[in-house]
Design goal:
CATH class of the largest domain: Alpha Beta
Structural class: alpha/beta
Number of helices: 14
CATH architecture of the largest domain: 3-Layer(bba) Sandwich
CATH topology of the largest domain: FAD/NAD(P)-binding domain
Radius of gyration: 23 Å
Strand content: 25-35%
């Protein structure tokens, strides 16, 4: 097996493997170095895919308990088979990662298992089980992703104080759980366990849930999650956690400076992620990183060493699997001289609670801070016949458009299947559509998508028909 390649990709996650496939399609001889035994990175192994498998399983369980009867489906009281839920999750992960193996074989991409360290502008060492090999490439692409961010005052012990990795494999359904962090990971993991009967408490330093998204979405999501008996402490900072044999005691300080003491079976720390840039050999090459450990790159994803590139969670921008994939494609295409780009204003964000939350473009706060004049239209799902027929009328869609030109600047949704509906919004933002453009397009009836049409009509001039 040759160890000389046109492109060496360090990291086999959604950024790395997609970049590798695109490179092979463009005629490059490509190698991928990944230290996990399976490809797919955090997303496929301990992130996006396993969490969505459990979210779907637990939502079906919750629907069986709360909504089947109104549909005329009478069943005995359903019971959660946690062991089977976990096994199904593992099966989904295994099938998905095998699919990535197939893509490597199909595109004749060489796989190296081990930790990659860059030795020179064209050489990477691969360490695996005490053995080291050298791989050379005309270009090197860093796509090593990220890992969970710890809190110094609440160190992980992997037993009672856990990260999302352990939360996806708990041996039993907890009676109580404290989640530190009300962002995407916190609310998704909280949803999984709250649906199963766990008493979930979320502690968040900011004043609401999913604070990086539109404020109205966070407020609506909070209202929805309260129906699962979830408890929230906003404006509260955790100062310590003491782990015992069966419980964890958490101390925190609220916005009034008063002490808050909480106890639970488990504490899940979900305050974000940090780039995997340690041990890559960047210092020796003079490649700078910023204060958050992110690699500095130019507009072509090049580091200060022209033959070394970086994408995904290790560089600037939001940490999302699809953002990394798009960067991987654009980066490799630019390597071979093509004119590729990523429109970062058109990268959607999704929260897979139920109702789902999705967003693309600018929020109201961002537009206000930038001094951009805008108008908005909100349409509730309760006005949708399809939503009422499905017993899924919670939520709304909000369209933000430029006050003078009517160009869509942002679209924000909470409701049924908005993780899929956001794709139409992405197209609108990418092609700089006006609110009227979406409003006058025919949307199939009855569908959830009609709510986007109504919101666009409302934004384009109070022309909504059905509310």
């Amino acid at each position: 097996m040759t160890n000389q390649f046109d492109l060496v990709v360090i990291g086999g996650g959604p950024g790395g493997y997609v970049a590798a496939v695109r490179g092979a399609q463009l005629g490059l001889n490509v190698a991928v170095i990944e230290q996990r035994a399976t490809l797919g990175g955090t997303c496929l192994n301990v992130g996006c895919i396993p969490s969505k498998a459990l979210l779907d399983s637990t939502e079906l369980f919750h629907q069986a308990k709360t909504k089947f009867s109104v549909h005329g489906i009478d069943i005995s009281e359903p019971k959660a088979n946690w062991k089977q839920m976990l096994q199904r999750k593992r099966d989904v992960v295994a099938t998905t990662t095998k699919g990535i193996d197939f893509l490597m074989q199909k595109n004749k991409i060489t796989r190296f298992v081990g930790k990659g360290t860059i030795q020179s502008p064209t050489t990477v060492s691969v360490a695996n089980n005490g053995e080291t090999s050298l791989v050379t490439g005309g270009k090197i692409l860093i796509a090593t992703g990220s890992t969970v961010t710890p809190i110094s005052s609440v160190p992980f012990d992997g037993k009672r104080i856990i990260s999302s990795d352990e939360a996806l494999e708990l041996p039993e359904i907890p009676t109580t759980m404290i989640i530190i962090g009300g962002g995407v990971i916190g609310v998704e993991m909280g949803s999984i366990y709250a649906r199963l009967g766990t008493k979930v408490t979320i502690v968040e330093t900011m004043d609401g849930l999913i604070p990086t998204m539109d404020r109205e979405l966070g407020r609506a999501l909070e209202k929805s999650l309260r129906h699962l008996d979830m408890v929230f402490h906003f404006g509260t900072k955790v100062t310590s956690a003491i782990s015992g044999d069966t419980v964890v005691t958490v101390s925190a300080e609220d916005k009034r400076g008063e002490l808050v003491t909480l106890t639970a079976d488990y504490v899940l720390v979900a305050v974000g992620r940090r780039p995997n840039t340690d041990g890559l050999g960047l210092d020796g090459l003079g490649i700078p990183v910023d204060s958050r450990g992110r690699i500095e790159i130019n507009d072509h994803y090049q580091t200060s060493v022209p033959s070394i590139y970086a994408i995904g969670d290790v560089v600037r921008g939001i940490m999302l699997a699809h953002k990394a994939s798009e960067e991987g494609v654009a980066c490799v295409e630019q390597m071979v001289g093509q004119k590729s780009h990523v429109n970062y204003d058109a990268i959607p964000g999704v929260v897979y609670t139920w109702p789902e939350v999705a967003s693309v473009g600018k929020t109201e706060d961002e537009l206000k801070q930038a001094g951009i004049p805008f108008k908005k239209g909100n349409a509730p799902f309760k006005a949708s016949g399809r939503a009422r027929a499905a017993e899924e009328s919670d939520g709304f869609i909000k369209v933000l458009a430029h006050k003078e030109t009517d160009e869509i600047l942002g679209i924000h949704m909470i409701g049924p299947r908005v993780a899929d509906l956001i794709a139409e919004a992405v197209v609108a933002v990418e092609y700089r559509a006006s609110a009227e453009d979406i409003g006058i397009m025919s949307h199939p009836h009855p569908t959830f998508s009609e709510t986007l049409k109504e919101a666009a009509l409302a934004a384009s001039g109070n022309r909504a028909i059905h509310f």
